[in-house]
Amino acid sequence: MTGHPYTAPPMPVPLPTDDEVLLVPPDAAEAEATARAVAALAAPDTGLTDLQRVLLEALWLAMTGHEVDLDDLDPPSPERLAQVLARRNAAFRTRGVQVMLLAALVLRPLPPEVADRVAAAARELSIEEGMVDVARRFASGALGLAAADFDRNGYTADWDSADTEALHTSVGLAKAWDVAVADEELAAQWEALADLPDGTLGKQVWQLYLARGFEFPGRPGSAPPLLAQHDWVHVLADYGTVVDSELEVFAFIARANDDMRAFSLLAMVVSLFETGYLRSGAGLFESSPGHLSVGASMAVRVADAMRRGALCRDNETGSDSIDYLRIDWFELAPLPLEEVRARFSVTPKSDAATAAGSVTPWEPGGISEFQLANGRAVAEREERPYESYGCENP
């Protein structure tokens, strides 16, 4: 697939009317046609990379239940994709654009023609997706501007100091990823999780922190309170705390939220932990490239995390959209972990994801060597025995 020209579509395909819209899951034929159109648009002129192929194949199988054939792709055509999705609503189309973006964002370098094709496809689908601008910045080498676009167009674009209520900070945070380094009231709430019964969500989050020597939010050296929200998800969804597991956690979080800007969270960790386009993110994470392209195993794990996120539902409110970073976790902390999982319809990992190496926080491989050493050092400093809660090699 070399040098296929395309021109920007002259007229977007309008969204379907209520009478025209198709709301049932895609059948095998639609899944295949969509996957092939997406793959052609996201592929470099030399063809799909190995990572793109395994990622798209894993995603389609996990999200639709259908295997797809990505050999011998037709020339890229935004119009073809738009016609395949002509009867799909804005949410379905946006998810298609986001999967196409994900396949593009794993490329380094990201060819400008790929970013342009993705942008053209979004226009043809009548979809606005802020991460398209990020992809084009990456393709042009404007990495600093791309980082700014994450804030301007992504999950935290409408951040307000009132949003800190669920974080339990004593004062409002001017920026989403600000660190609250002098908030003893906040730190005390985290410390009090130790007093909860074993098996509760809060007690297991406390154990996660203790084993790794993490500082509680509100103290110097801690994570931003907003980022600390995702630590509850490590326990809720049963993911370890190594870098590979962060890709799973944020795939789960992003797909559970029907606010399409949540996709930027997954785009962020891919840009940190696969391509290294971002040097830092979320107020704490540092670039560590190459964690997605280790083979088909990580593609299977990320795809399964997205499947699990998509199946989440808040059975108390009846909402199919869950913003896991803005939940008041301290209200749920005293509940048994399994009760919280049931509330949010958190399904088990697939056998394929487990076989591919997806680990829990409580088994060897679910903690990094740095975290293990840090947990031991903190225990020694506090003159107490170290407890890994199962994640230390026997």
What structural class should be given to the helix and strand makeup? mainly alpha
What does the largest sheet look like? 2 strands, antiparallel
**SS elements, strand count:** 2
Q: How far apart, in Å, are the first and last alpha carbons? A: 51 Å
Helix content percent band: 40-55%
Strand residue percentage: under 5%
Query: Number of DSSP helices?
Result: 17
How are strands sequenced across the largest beta sheet? Answer: 1-2
Instruction: Give the overall silhouette.
Output: globular
N to C succession of SSEs: HHHHHHHHHHHHEEHHHHH
Unreliable stretches covering 5 or more consecutive residues: none
Mean pLDDT: 95
**Cα Rg:** 21 Å
Q: How many separate structural domains?
A: 2
List the defining traits of the structure above:
2 strands; mainly alpha; 48% helix; two-stranded antiparallel ribbon; 17 helices; 394 residues; 1% strand
In short:
The protein has 394 residues and is mostly helical.
Question: How is this structure best described in words?
Answer:
This protein has 394 residues and is an all-alpha fold. It folds into 2 domains: 126 residues, no CATH class; 221 residues, no CATH class. It is built from 17 helices and 2 strands. It has a two-stranded antiparallel ribbon. Helix 1 crosses helix 4, helix 4 runs parallel beside helix 6 and helix 9 packs across helix 10.
Topology:
Blueprint: H1 28-42, H2 50-64, H3 78-84, H4 90-105, H5 112-124, H6 131-140, H7 143-153, H8 184-191, H9 201-212, H10 225-237, H11 243-256, H12 263-273, E1 280-281, E2 285-286, H13 296-310, H14 329-332, H15 337-343, H16 351-355, H17 369-381
Antiparallel strand pairs: 1-2
